[in-house]
Design brief:
30% of the residues lie in helices and 21% in strands. A 6-stranded mixed β-sheet has the order 6-7-5-4-16-15. A hairpin with a 4-residue loop joins strand 24 and strand 25. The protein starts with 19 loop residues before the first strand and ends in a 14-residue tail after the last helix. The N terminus is likely disordered.
Length: 848
């Protein structure tokens, strides 16, 4: 899972003075790899610190800021050295921070040396970070590294970088807009071959050469994009996203590429068992730029990485390309869950641009999208013997009529705008490992085309689409597709002429007119907004003035953002040509962070957006709405005071009880609380009765549509039994715990729990002094989890899995925990799963 700024702490403070330097380092036997992480050595006097920076725009921006700061210091030298007195406040509050480094000597390498050698990249520089690449074939340690510069020297790429920079204003954005509009005047199409491969390896090690798969084309392809799924099925890989099999499979791929060409390894990105490898012919490396990678898990609560996707985006010459490798939900009847996984991946994968002021790029914002992986769509309405009979007769067209993916695409539910080639090979799943024999296990899976390759974009032609039956390592067969893709290249002379003509035309048209726009609507009302349910409306902004304009939603006085946290406007800034229009989507979404204040009445769905025009006036958009209170995001104390479903009670009563629960001023006679919230009891009781033996409980996600039904049932009391599958109820329980404004173990007990996490008796003593409703809920949940462990032979749960899922929900901080804290949290909760709680048995617990 991705590491964010909340996952790290400030450990050292390094002042940038005249004696500061930073250089890129590598060991003598280390091969240069395009797209790999960068290691840099920071030196201040005689002390050194080595950092590993992830490849991408964030690292380039960081090094650029360091370079700029050092340059400022040099301009002032040899004036008085700064004393960095302002750092004192950080020393006082930073946990474990070391003191400021003392001056003991002079460093021998200055930033100026880096600048001359091109090792540091400033913000807005035209050149990309210079990196080397390695041939995929093994080399001796003594061989000289083949340094290939990945400079993007093409005019349009540099122009896009230049005009995208914040310091360029309206005129430059207009030039950029006109250039993009007239792109056909200075670009031409040249075809390149892309080899796409996907292989679900079922947790196996590479046992055979991959050449029959990867070197199956007559001529060497220009690009290799190779995806794996289920790289490692161990609990360690699932819990810690770490596996030795990454290197094993990467080496197997490198050795099996087409022997008639030299390839550079460009990028590897992995999420648990989903891995994507990117290789390219050495001669094309210099034309690859703007590369970024992202991952997204679509497992339980959208966090677990056992299912999900990894993606790479890059620019090749003048074409933007995005490659996605995904592993969607399993089982024949879960096609709706697969549809939801696809939509979640498209929505949640967002690539940051080199210019941080520009909005992130989604998958569909690219000229070319290549999608591969174990999509897990099955064959419906056919018995296994009939399917095998049709396969033996090679009646693949008949089988395709029952293919779930084909049906969903025909109905335009998923992969709208994508194309898949004709399937004329037998299904690639499921075989007995090590053979070509169909599944003979007790489950006897129906054969299916789980492993697929699709594409989206213009000027794309498929040359080959096939499976590779000779590989027998896994219960899947690998699949490959060879695509010929038309890439846009820039003709320098044509570009120059087009650019000059655009500039001359703008010079003639430019005047002092004030920009203005008209809005389709100024007031928006969002009715009946619910927890975790999107509502969206659109405002059309039309440029009715005489000149182009730039617009942006701006902050109001004394407010940190342009809108409330439950509201977004997309796009929140942009450029409008004269006579142009843009549809801005106003979206309301209440989640775990915004629900508590709305439930308690501290906040209302009310906001005013200020749309600002550069050199023009401001426009005001009113947002109002009604929020339906939910048990999700309400406190345990409040829910224990509610005798009726939360939406069946007057809003004033709910808010009054919420205030009483916070002030602890409730009347013991009239406001006698229940022992546990009835909503929590309904979910746990359902799982106890119906899901004790459910395989992969709390590990397989449910459907969002079913979660909405469960939420409505709990909030309105409309049904006596909960709707939806066991997996949906389990995920709803986790979301309930995650949304609590005060966790089951209150924040005030957090540090105490960590301090005594190794002592079982003290841990139990802490629980005994929790507020009553919190203590009851904790004991109730741990007793339920103990019951589940009694059926581990059926549900495949163990204490380690349950601890990793529940510990961070029951004992947490409002902010992210560091790795040491996470370990202690798990250690604390482990005591309660290996020993039965001392309170009443699970069966005796119910709301009263």
């Amino acid at each position: 899972m991705a590491i964010t700024g909340d996952d790290v702490t400030l450990d050292e403070i390094i002042p940038i003075s005249y004696d500061f330097s930073v250089v890129e380092v590598s060991s003598p036997d280390e091969l240069a790899v395009v797209g790999a992480d960068t290691r840099v050595r920071v030196t201040i006097f005689e002390e050194e610190l080595e950092l590993k920076l992830p490849f991408g725009s964030q690292s380039r921006l960081f090094l650029g800021e360091v370079n700029r700061a050092w340059s400022d210091v040099c301009e002032q030298h040899p004036k008085q050295e700064p004393k960095f007195d302002w750092l004192s406040k950080y020393r006082k509050v930073t946990r474990g921070a070391r003191s400021l480094r003392k001056a003991t000597g002079a460093s021998n390498i200055k930033m100026s040396q880096i600048k001359k050698s091109g090792k540091a990249d400033g913000v807005g520089q035209k050149k990309e970070d210079e990196r080397g690449v390695c041939e995929s074939q093994e080399r001796g340690k003594g061989e000289v590294r083949d340094d290939l510069i990945r400079n993007s020297m093409h005019i349009l790429s540099n122009k896009d970088q230049m005009l995208g920079m914040p310091q360029f204003g309206l005129r430059d954005n207009l030039i950029k807009c006109e250039l993009l509009k007239n792109e056909d005047a200075y670009t031409y199409i040249q075809n390149y071959s892309f080899f796409l491969g996907t292989y679900n390896v079922n947790g196996q090690n590479p046992k055979e050469s991959l050449s029959p798969w990867l070197a199956s084309t007559a001529t060497p392809p220009d690009f290799y994009l190779v995806g794996f799924q289920e790289l490692d099925l161990s609990k360690e890989a699932f819990l810690f996203n770490d596996t030795p099999k990454e290197l094993e499979w990467m080496q197997a791929v490198s050795k099996s590429l087409h022997p008639d060409a030299k390839y550079a390894f460009v990028k590897l990105v992995r999420l648990v068992g989903i891995m994507l490898l990117f290789y390219v012919k050495v001669e094309h490396v210099a034309h690859i730029s703007e590369m970024e990678s992202e991952t997204v898990g679509t497992g339980v609560m959208g966090r677990m990485g056992n299912k999900g996707a990894v993606a790479i985006r890059f620019q090749f010459h003048n074409s933007d390309i995005c490659v996605v490798n995904s592993h969607l939900a399993a089982h024949t009847d879960e096609f709706e869950r697969r549809n939801q996984d696809f939509k979640d991946i498209c929505r949640r994968i967002q690539f940051r641009q080199e210019d941080p002021s520009l909005p992130p790029l989604t998958i569909m914002k690219h000229n070319v999208v290549l999608w591969l992986g174990d999509l897990n769509y099955r064959l419906s309405d056919l018995e296994v013997d009939h399917v095998k009979e049709l396969i033996a007769k090679k009646e693949f067209e008949t089988l395709c009529n029952h293919d779930q993916l084909k049906r969903q695409m025909d109905e335009e539910v998923v992969f709208v705008g994508f194309t898949e080639g004709e399937i004329d090979f037998q299904p690639t799943y499921k075989y007995d490992t090590g053979s070509d024999q169909w599944d003979t296990s007790e489950k006897c899976r129906v054969p299916a085309w789980c492993d697929r390759i699709l594409w989206r974009g213009k000027a794309i032609k498929q040359l080959n689409y096939q499976s590779h039956m000779t590989l027998k390592t896994s219960d899947h067969k690998p699949v490959s597709s060879l695509l010929e893709i038309g890439i846009k290249l820039v003709d320098d002379e044509s570009y120059k002429r087009t650019f000059e003509e655009i500039v001359r035309r703008i010079d003639r048209l430019e005047n002092d007119c004030i920009p203005s726009v008209s809005l389709s609507q100024r007031e928006f009302v969002f009715e009946h907004v619910k927890f975790m349910q999107h509502q969206a409306q659109t405002v059309r902004v039309h440029n009715d003035g005489q000149v182009p304009c730039q617009f942006e939603f701006i902050q109001k006085l004394d407010e940190p953002f342009y809108c409330k946290p439950w509201l977004t406007a997309n796009p929140c800034k942009g450029f409008l040509a004269q006579g142009g229009s843009v549809d801005i989507v106003l979206e309301v979404f209440v989640n775990r962070s915004t629900a508590p204040e709305l439930n308690s009445g501290q906040q209302q769905l009310e906001d005013i957006l200020v749309l600002h025009l550069e050199r023009g006036k401001d426009y005001f958009i009113s947002i109002t709405g009604s929020y339906l209170p939910s048990c999700f995001g309400s406190s345990l104390a409040t829910l224990c005071l509610l005798r009726e479903p939360i939406q069946e009670m007057p809003l004033d009563t709910v808010r009054e009880l919420s205030m009483k629960s916070k002030s602890q001023a409730s009347d013991p006679e009239t406001d006698k609380p229940q022992e546990i919230p009835k909503e929590l009891w309904m979910m746990v009781d359902h799982l106890f009765r119906c899901a004790k033996k459910q395989e992969d409980l709390f590990q397989q996600p449910g459907l969002h549509s079913e979660f909405e039904e469960i939420r409505d049932c709990l909030d309105t009391g409309s049904l006596d039994t909960l709707p939806g599958s066991n997996h949906s109820v389990a995920e709803a329980l986790l979301m309930f715990l995650d949304a609590l404004p005060e966790p089951v173990i209150p924040f005030s007990f957090y540090q105490q729990c960590l301090d005594i996490s190794a002592d079982s008796s003290q841990c139990r003593q802490i629980i005994s002094i929790l507020p009553q409703c919190h203590r009851n809920v904790f004991n109730y949940l741990t007793a339920f989890l103990q019951e589940l462990l009694k059926h581990s032979a059926n549900n495949r749960l163990d204490a380690t899995i349950l601890v990793s899922i529940f510990a961070g929900l029951l004992l947490r901080l409002p902010t992210n925990q560091d790795p040491t804290e996470k370990r202690k949290v798990k250690e604390f909760f482990q005591h309660f799963l290996v020993q039965m709680p001392s309170d009443r048995d699970f069966h005796d617990k119910s709301p009263q």
